[in-house]
Specification:
Number of strands: 9
Strand order of the largest sheet: 2-4-5
Distance between the termini: 46 Å
Shape: globular
Largest sheet: 3 strands, mixed
Order of helices and strands: HEEHEEEHEEEHHE
Structural class: alpha/beta
Length: 166
């Protein structure tokens, strides 16, 4: 009788519990931090209220890509939703930088499937970043830009496979 969103979120939830236990960190369920309206749209105002509890926490693991509606049912974000969760948490803790770890080293000037060895864009404005995401760049979810932009938190896209690259 569980919903598809609930089932889809459990791997992330359980992995978060394991990671928090392994690291000795506090686990905070994303369902207690990220809110959706009854129609499934993201509720930023309530989320900001709920995430205030992060301001007093140290060393926390928060699973990504889901939250809950006010009725308590689990709601998942779209593909790439962990980027959104990360930026919401970065805003809540007033981070100096939001690092988004992915499989590429930043944004490229061209699609690498079309152009061989495109150059990396070292600096991009929030507006350019959102436009690139909207136009199909899959490095960062387009909705992840709003929380950190409002808080003026810089975004640093890092490569998990090449962590020493800028």
């Amino acid at each position: 009788g569980a919903s598809v969103d609930y089932v889809a979120s459990r791997g992330e939830y359980l992995n978060g519990l394991l990671l928090a236990d392994y690291l000795g960190f506090t686990f905070l369920d994303a369902a207690e931090l990220i809110c959706f309206h009854s129609d499934g749209t993201y509720d930023d105002e309530t989320t900001q209220q709920w995430t205030q509890r992060l301001e007093t926490q140290q060393s926390v693991v928060v699973p990504g890509f889901y939250g809950r509606k006010r009725d308590g049912s689990i709601k998942t974000l779209s593909r790439g939703g962990s980027d959104i969760t990360g930026s919401i948490v970065a805003r809540a803790v007033q981070a100096d930088v939001y690092e988004n770890w992915t499989d590429v080293s930043g944004f490229l000037m061209a699609d690498p499937r079309i152009v061989d060895n495109p150059k990396v864009m070292r600096t991009v404005t929030y507006a350019e970043l959102r436009e690139l995401s909207y136009m199909g760049a899959t490095v960062l979810h387009e909705d992840s830009i709003f929380p950190v932009r409002r808080a003026k938190i810089p975004i640093n896209v890092r490569n998990t496979n090449a962590p020493d690259e800028p």
